[in-house]
Design brief:
- This protein is an alpha+beta fold.
- The chain has 2 domains: about 50 residues; about 180 residues, Periplasmic metal-binding protein Tp34-type (Immunoglobulin-like), CATH 2.60.40.
- Helix content is about 20%, strand content about 35%.
- The strands form 2 sheets. It has a 9-stranded mixed beta sheet, with no helix packed on it. A two-stranded antiparallel sheet has the order 4-5.
Length: about 240
Amino acid sequence: MFSRAFAGRRAGSVRRPALVAAVIAAAVAALFVAVHESRGGASPASAQTGTSPASPMASMNGMGGPPSSGPSAVPAQPSSGVMTVRGASLPASPTSSSGPSAMAMVPLGQTQWEGMSIQARTSAPATFELFNGTSQRLVRPSAKDSFHLMVMLADTASGVAIPYSSVWATITKGGKVVFDERLWPMISRYMGPHFGNNVALPSAGLYRLTLLVSPPVAARHLEYKGLWLQPHRVHLTFRWVPGS
């Protein structure tokens, strides 16, 4: 009788510390959850579904430029894959250093190359300045220029612009070359690094744009090892409708 009573007291004394430890652990867990929520931590539901607050890159344009807003939204590419560029509706480029923080652009098309996004867009013929390291030259659009062609290269995952490349543009109509020039490496407050030049087309109609994109000549972090080691050609078709 005495041994059973002693064994019962001993078992109770063993279970009591375990119960106290469980209560303390539950209290600590509740306190951690309360502190986490008070600091704006993500809920368990968002952690399970993989949702997270929007990245600053998500609000930037396709090349890691500043956020666009209002009428500067880029129209969607039609299902046919052929964009129509209308001269009368092309947005004007800024003509001074006090230009807008974002600018509307009409897309010609886009594609991907080994994780690099290649986007071609247009605006009204632009005035820009060329600097060769020692001197500056102002380039003004001529009366024959149809639009300003811009090509943006960016990391498809992050949207960060990829510089140190070069882009050559060739435009043909009916198999005849009507434009065959280098696109200048350019920088802009509202677009960031890109490549561009003014383009003159002879008449309305269907055109084929070929972009020759060279490998970026630069030291690379290891995530870009083995990528973009050979020149790459992109072919896009668009329809040009001159303004009145």
